From TrEMBL, chains A, B, C, D:
Cofactor: Mg(2+); [4Fe-4S] cluster
Keyword vocabulary terms for this entry: 4Fe-4S, Glutamine amidotransferase, Glycosyltransferase, Iron, Iron-sulfur, Magnesium, Metal-binding, Purine biosynthesis, Transferase
Residues the record marks as active site: 9
Binding site for [4Fe-4S] cluster: 245, 391, 442, 445
Pathway: Purine metabolism; IMP biosynthesis via de novo pathway; N(1)-(5-phospho-D-ribosyl)glycinamide from 5-phospho-alpha-D-ribose 1-diphosphate: step 1/2
Enzyme class: transferase
Organism: Desulfurispirillum indicum (strain ATCC BAA-1389 / DSM 22839 / S5)
The protein's name in its UniProt record: Amidophosphoribosyltransferase
Amino acid sequence: MLDCFHDECGIAGVYGNPEAANHAYLSLYAFQHRGQESAGITACFPGGSFSSHKGRGLVSEVFDQEKLNQLKGTIAIGHNRYSTSGKAILENAQPFDIEYHRGRLSLAHNGNLVNSHLLRRELEAMGAIFRTTNDSEVLLHLIARSRHEDFIETLRSVFMTVRGAYSIVMTDGERLYGIRDPLGIRPLILGELEEGLVLVSESCALDLMGATFIREVNPGELIVIDGKGFQSIPLLPVTERSAFCIFEFVYFARPDSFQFGNYVHNVRKEFGRTLAREAPVDADVVIPVPDSGIVPTLGFSQESGIPFEMGLIRNHYVGRTFIEPKQSIRHFGVKIKLNPVKSLLEGKRVVVIDDSIVRGTTSRKIVKMIRDAGAKEVHMRIAAPPTICPCFYGVDTPTRSELIASNHDLEQICTYITADSLSYLSHEGMFTAAGGDRNTFCSACFDGNYPIPFDSPEAGTT
Amino acid sequence: MLDCFHDECGIAGVYGNPEAANHAYLSLYAFQHRGQESAGITACFPGGSFSSHKGRGLVSEVFDQEKLNQLKGTIAIGHNRYSTSGKAILENAQPFDIEYHRGRLSLAHNGNLVNSHLLRRELEAMGAIFRTTNDSEVLLHLIARSRHEDFIETLRSVFMTVRGAYSIVMTDGERLYGIRDPLGIRPLILGELEEGLVLVSESCALDLMGATFIREVNPGELIVIDGKGFQSIPLLPVTERSAFCIFEFVYFARPDSFQFGNYVHNVRKEFGRTLAREAPVDADVVIPVPDSGIVPTLGFSQESGIPFEMGLIRNHYVGRTFIEPKQSIRHFGVKIKLNPVKSLLEGKRVVVIDDSIVRGTTSRKIVKMIRDAGAKEVHMRIAAPPTICPCFYGVDTPTRSELIASNHDLEQICTYITADSLSYLSHEGMFTAAGGDRNTFCSACFDGNYPIPFDSPEAGTT
Amino acid sequence: MLDCFHDECGIAGVYGNPEAANHAYLSLYAFQHRGQESAGITACFPGGSFSSHKGRGLVSEVFDQEKLNQLKGTIAIGHNRYSTSGKAILENAQPFDIEYHRGRLSLAHNGNLVNSHLLRRELEAMGAIFRTTNDSEVLLHLIARSRHEDFIETLRSVFMTVRGAYSIVMTDGERLYGIRDPLGIRPLILGELEEGLVLVSESCALDLMGATFIREVNPGELIVIDGKGFQSIPLLPVTERSAFCIFEFVYFARPDSFQFGNYVHNVRKEFGRTLAREAPVDADVVIPVPDSGIVPTLGFSQESGIPFEMGLIRNHYVGRTFIEPKQSIRHFGVKIKLNPVKSLLEGKRVVVIDDSIVRGTTSRKIVKMIRDAGAKEVHMRIAAPPTICPCFYGVDTPTRSELIASNHDLEQICTYITADSLSYLSHEGMFTAAGGDRNTFCSACFDGNYPIPFDSPEAGTT
Amino acid sequence: MLDCFHDECGIAGVYGNPEAANHAYLSLYAFQHRGQESAGITACFPGGSFSSHKGRGLVSEVFDQEKLNQLKGTIAIGHNRYSTSGKAILENAQPFDIEYHRGRLSLAHNGNLVNSHLLRRELEAMGAIFRTTNDSEVLLHLIARSRHEDFIETLRSVFMTVRGAYSIVMTDGERLYGIRDPLGIRPLILGELEEGLVLVSESCALDLMGATFIREVNPGELIVIDGKGFQSIPLLPVTERSAFCIFEFVYFARPDSFQFGNYVHNVRKEFGRTLAREAPVDADVVIPVPDSGIVPTLGFSQESGIPFEMGLIRNHYVGRTFIEPKQSIRHFGVKIKLNPVKSLLEGKRVVVIDDSIVRGTTSRKIVKMIRDAGAKEVHMRIAAPPTICPCFYGVDTPTRSELIASNHDLEQICTYITADSLSYLSHEGMFTAAGGDRNTFCSACFDGNYPIPFDSPEAGTT
Ligand SMILES: Nc1ncnc2c1ncn2[C@@H]1O[C@H](COP(=O)(O)OP(=O)(O)O)[C@@H](O)[C@H]1O
Ligand SMILES: Nc1ncnc2c1ncn2[C@@H]1O[C@H](COP(=O)(O)OP(=O)(O)O)[C@@H](O)[C@H]1O
Ligand SMILES: Nc1ncnc2c1ncn2[C@@H]1O[C@H](COP(=O)(O)OP(=O)(O)O)[C@@H](O)[C@H]1O
Ligand SMILES: Nc1ncnc2c1ncn2[C@@H]1O[C@H](COP(=O)(O)OP(=O)(O)O)[C@@H](O)[C@H]1O
Ligand code: SF4
Ligand code: SF4
Ligand code: SF4
Ligand code: SF4
Ligand SMILES: [Mg+2]
Ligand SMILES: [Mg+2]
Ligand SMILES: [Mg+2]
Ligand SMILES: [Mg+2]
């Protein structure tokens, strides 16, 4: 409803647990925010056949007790998807289950390959058929066509061929595999259950499952899990630089998660502190756009001394469907989600903090809403730099022309959103707060420095 | 899932708007937290026939565009219900539509009548048939049996007969009526749309509809709305005392609502401030049990100077259905909803604030969760006095024996929840913060002072 | 889809069986043809509370295993309804469950009261409230208001007051009651399970349940069933005449049922035989409009010696929903249901037999369909007299102006339906074949002789 | 519910009609009896992209107006499927839509390939991945891998490679293709709409669409339909023999259809006549097991002079779901579908005719049901020879060991089903009645003469 970046997926793999599908379900539930349009789980016993269920909607809508019970086995793979995309002919839902010359394979993928269109055309030329528009199908074709005897070698050659962002969990019905691209763009975390091992996109899933954090999968690393435990295989050559998606810290990840060597909460709060130093403002109160704005706002407040208040209330029942009245209601789009606390705002000079401005329409409505509630001044502070470029690494972003900061300067944006002042976090401030630099993180959507070049104009589409 | 008090209902009436049903829907959506088990709307044109739709589930599940479109008319009544109660024979969903000697009537009711069982037995003795276990049916029978020519006199005599808590919206297909009991136990608010007038349980609905707040309906007052505007009729004799449900301030109402002459946010924050003064504690950080604990925690922090942090994260996707794994996961019940931010809690002396302790099981899990996350000390502070008595005025409460504070002293509760210390807000502190005293508010669940006596042991059941 | 008379209901009562609801379900399933719009079952243990489930659609859609399992008890009442009527405000679904001064009552009703509007107005004047537009609610109010101590006397006085067609099953949670109106217009049959007793609208339900036929309930009789068996109470004064609905033989009842002292199949076949004698025709083949036309056609064939053939095939999957193409397809309405067997019709002189002509539009399409398939001549024979009047005794009929035979003579109808000849069964022929005369049967829809006068123009509406 | 052979599919293709999907829907509806478990339609404009919808259930359940409206285009392909088979991992629903080096392809298939397992293993060895267990996927891989420039040559080489029974409709988004295997095992019919051309499995679909029959597609023929009309291409070499599935005449096809050069009705009636001559019996009445038994029974009656009666009534509402009571009811399984007309059977010597005996359990229940209804003698006559072998050409049959006639002689079967006598139609009688001989028809399920050899034991599985 509100304009924002959307993460594309959350993935989970469970090995060696008698309730594998149930734990995959818990993971998908924990990082439901990573993808809300469809969900799927495939399960099996070692050597047994796959059972699978996928559907559109939230995890809690797609699965019920009966459906979960049918997903028997000690191995399971799960997938949350943001966008089911318009392409309705082909069935893009994951995990993606196939049979091929080695037997069976089930794969779930978070990310985006930048050379998949090229590879797809080559594969088609060699006689491959595609049922979906999904990158994963390219991966599976490559795996199936590899002439290597050894499966690890197969994987190595395939992932040497593809370029892009990917965290992958995969099972051949015997073992569970986890792979992360050489730049580590998307997260992938290894954890331990009382019984069994897990691989998940975000650490909050470990907490819900009652699992212990072991470590993050390394860039370019292959983790192979079987009855004996896990084994680390350096699959792909890595360079000194990594390219962890900094937007995970800015927005995607839950504040209670740990990623890229840091607590999300700590980084996000440091964004707020730095912002307070970089763009101070004389004000009576500082309020977040909840919930993603809360943590940086706390940092801002603590650094600046301006009292923190919950000046906007977020409706608990914000859902995916909502019927608008035909007659327009002022700021309706934002009201469904947020409502101001008038007594906090009346006559006040207000700083309001959000994680990003995408199209600007939401920020504009929020500023007006605060002003209508009686604020004397409204100062917008953004706990990240301006978003100026689309992401081609698995995040659903507006096109460049829709990104307000891509073609407007600070003053113009400030005027558009009708704020009294507007400031963004600096690039340096962001990197430092996140504990790294330009060679640690991908920050392409903030600066256009794409860590992986893409050769075709189609590259960016999913 | 977590143990708590449940409000029973939210009601809305719309008059003179071409999209009356749509606005009723918006109201129900805004105060969905007042009742999540079923929802219903009845609509009509003045003089036209009623159309009605009811169903189980959230407002957004019960209604879709097609169903709303069928509810044509400029008058509408809506109802959110917490409990559909076990009594499946009889159809308790509201609004309640009937035909009788005057024509048609549709009624929605928030509250509970304490003499309804008696009245029902009398009505049955006179030949009445009942299809539901609902208080509202008693009201309708009384209205239908009244011998008064005049409808207002009818209403007066009926509401002189019943005793209890009630806010009611009602239409005879011509006018919209709003009634509040003589003690004003349940809220009811009058507002103005660009086109038409509305009556709603909670003011946040006005904000979503884009309506202006006019005023609260007074205790004992009848509001009659027709094409000429609204008319105030003093229906029932009132005394000096009122009995506004103080639990609205403690928990039910959204912080952005205005009720009983005060902003909920302000009162709730003052609860926190007072608590900080009454029960100070030496600590490093104070955290809320979100979301209801946030506002008092801000007050506590501001008063005490202990830094406020979001040490517990509330999952956005907490729904009504969730599949538990068969193997127990530590604190699972609470984990589904809340997750600690470890980096904030490790090695800290933590104050955690919630609005109430009902059975104690949830608080116990929360304390343990915080301690497991590394807290050195965990001090629980409750922004209200101990809840020791059930409510008979329309709120779904556990029985006295289930209320931990009803039969355990402070120390015992503190031991049970495994906190390092525990304190509640004082009664005086609560009243003062809410801007009144024992004669302004009902506080029966905190002190057993029931403002309306009830004569039968059945009284408290719905 | 095709134009026809619709029966209004089928009812069932089960007593003393551990799977009472399941047997009620079987009954509703067996006479699903009596009402396809909604279905409901109420069940209880003697002295226990009612559980109930109702819904729109076929019995197999409304109930599933889980829902049936919830309907626990050894007593059950079921109801199939044809029309849910447009009146959506009020909830007309049956069985109708109430509480009143004697306790509980659940009632299901097949028929129509001709003085219910009058009674309703009187009841309303005395303070009754109505939630539905249903006759049954009038009955329940009358029962609740009766001043008789004795329940049997209560029933007697109530049913002395109402006039019309009714077969009723009812339980007070202790006993099962069956009542048939003094003219016996609607059927009601008593049967015996291995365990327990049953009352059903149509005997085919006994067969499906594996029950034995005991006898039909008599006109004016009350059957009371309890743990000791059944008891017959002559409730209402009866005259010499009865008024069994002859349309049951013509169309409603399944041919495998036994009603009004005769096998439906035998009567229906005799209709065909008589028709062959009364309206002979020189032809090569005689075909039914399946399925209702099959039995009379067999009679016609056997009497006339003209070979019987299945010249029209009835699609097994005729459902309630069907999406028509926007472009018109010739005879589409009928094609969805029926398709000719060309090889049987080409070049033939064809007699086609149906049970009735209502609006004429269907017969017209059928004649054309047969002719398009190559028939040289098409002779229509109807195994009943012309339907000229609406029914006010519980059958959903078109208004007089829509009944083609009401305002057109034989020749006009024949021309309209484009048949080469058309004949109907004579009134005498029908009575004789059915084993009675004008004093045995109601035949009002064929001759306007209404056995119960009705005093208001509203009488005929439900 | 009753034991029988199940057809596997019905297929339809529409070209050049503005309501192409709607006409495909009508076809699926007309031959719903060919597959009741799932249904799917893919539609497009020439050169446009595919839209597709598939689901489980009857055609009328899978599609509604909204879903059909989304299937825009003048080309459409539809598919009814009997078995969704247990293999839930892979998505077997058709039509099957892919992208490959030539562009897009959508294919629907009726039949079974006997060398698909072999081909599949070869394709896998060459790197193909499979998402389903479906034969169609093999076809699509072969098409995609063909090195022929020309599409027709591609099809020729692919269909020279596969062996088995297949009727196929297919579109590349530009043209519509229809193909029938060289033995013509499965039917495929070409028809003409007022606007456009159609290909359907069964001619009753033409009648419902208002299309004209052009001719059957020939064995080994490829029909290519484009804007200029249709073109016939002899795709595959054919021999003198054909192998039309004789079971279509015995059971599958609707009697109003025309297939393999004959009217189904005529053939089926001749089965009955021949049976009367081959296996005469002294009896009072001959009755069908409706509906499939009706036509042969008419033949039997006409030939033998024994009067035809509808002694068993088939419930119109036989659906796919039904809840059985826990307590057993005598012959329950059959009663749900059939009920005897006692007055017709009492004291009679009855001949009962069905199309086949598969496991024998149903026939046994039917014989008992007739006897329980009072029949003095029950003689079973089957209007086909004994079914002794499974089908490997696209029909879902029990295994050999489940086919009662496969391992019991006539007398044993007669004893098992408790009939007074039992006779089957002779093989010669069947062929003659069907207008051909062993070289015209496949009759493998009756005699084990499989017209296409299969090399692996897996061949027979779907
Ligand atoms: N309590 C929470 N539960 C889930 N996600 C949260 C929570 N708090 C913050 N987030 C983060 O904020 C994002 C969504 O929260 P919010 O800002 O409320 O909505 P919006 O996406 O509309 O900005 C998620 O991507 C998530 O990582
Ligand atoms: N943003 C909000 N939206 C809706 N209700 C809220 C909100 N914040 C606080 N509340 C209040 O808190 C209650 C529910 O919030 P919360 O404490 O998160 O859940 P719980 O009922 O489990 O304690 C509601 O009754 C409501 O009045
Ligand atoms: N086999 C049967 N199952 C159910 N009803 C049947 C059957 N045969 C005849 N009938 C009778 O015919 C009516 C419906 O059959 P049919 O003539 O096929 O449809 P229509 O109502 O469209 O004329 C029912 O009212 C029923 O009593
Ligand atoms: N009127 C009809 N509509 C559809 N199918 C029919 C019809 N009459 C006969 N059939 C044929 O009979 C089969 C199903 O009819 P029936 O014998 O009643 O059920 P069963 O499959 O249980 O034997 C179908 O395969 C169909 O070809
Ligand atoms: S472009 Fe932005 S969103 Fe995409 S991976 Fe890089 S930092 Fe993350
Ligand atoms: S008893 Fe408590 S919850 Fe009930 S009305 Fe009084 S204050 Fe409110
Ligand atoms: S009027 Fe016709 S349908 Fe009605 S009860 Fe009389 S015979 Fe039956
Ligand atoms: S084996 Fe039988 S069912 Fe199969 S194709 Fe041959 S005749 Fe038809
Ligand atoms: Mg946000
Ligand atoms: Mg709370
Ligand atoms: Mg009929
Ligand atoms: Mg059959």
